[in-house]
Amino acid sequence: MMSLAKFILISLLHVLFCISYANSGEDTLIIRDYIKKADRLCSIYPDSALLYSQKALNIVSFIDDPYLVSKIYKTHGIVFYHKARYDSSTYYLKLSITHIPKKESGYLATLYNLYGSALIMHNEFDTALYYIQNSFDINTKLELKKGLMNNYANFGLVYKCMGAYDVSISYIYKGLPIAEELRDTLTIIKLLHSIGSNYRSMGKPKLGIVYCKKALDYSLAIHNYKRASELANTIANFYKDLAQYDEAMRNYQLSYDYAHKINYPTMEAAALVNIGLYYAIDNRFDSAMHYLAKGYHIAQNNNYISIIAAADITYGKIYTETKQYDKALQHLLNVIDSENKAENSFIDKAY
Q1: Cα–Cα nearest to 48, from 304, 301, 262, 302
Q2: Is residue 347's pLDDT more than 50?
Q3: What is the pTM (predicted TM-score) of this model?
Q4: Are 151 and 114 within 8 A, CB to CB?
């Protein structure tokens, strides 16, 4: 058994090593390389990205450079955003903002916009708009095209979530030419997807399919299966709206396959719940319950509020159709009475 003196000596040596490691010029380059790798991987392989961002985070308390500290927190926050862990994302992005040197205006604008993105996922729309607008003001003053492009994308997203679809599309159309000029494929994909989703919400699924299929082609061309899984799910929803259920089912399955390929639990859960809904519509309740249970389990483990609500509503439909009314009511009341409130549209459906 290790003696107390030996334990203290080993701990002290570890601290001294970390201080030396973090402050030497050569090893600072290694930390920056971790950040660079995490940034490159996060949108496609967030689990791999987390390994690198965590390595940098492990020694953040021994780093003297506030800008590098801020970059480590920023990268860790972005990785958690892509893993759909928005509580962790907002936490680290806020830390990043508090550690930034005040003279770094352009970088501050980037952080404000990223923090706004995470707040949107929390349905904190007013606060999100505050940070995005502050970012926009800085980017406008400094004439930073990439920053403005990302601001337009976030304005589009927040107004879509608020139900102002025309306003959302108007912002996205301002951002799209900048993305094309900068040849920013990931942002082009995101903006095309947003336009398509808005058209679905406006009751124009055929237009939505056009834009989302363009985005899906871009995603597959660069092997971005994360985006591909999201787009296949959206396209499936369009086909469901058009009552083309075989096409809907095919795209839900594609969505699951793409998500499973890269271990993306958000879309795995969403696709499984949607496949369950498909079988429920077809009155194949045993199959529906099988897929729902798998998706519900993933969603509950990760606290995906909207997906849990969608599953509860589908359970409510199935149990109503099979005359198990007590079970139906329990699932529907889960949506209405949950402490973690779902979107209003889900609550309306539950009522």
Answers
A1: 262
A2: yes
A3: 0.74
A4: no
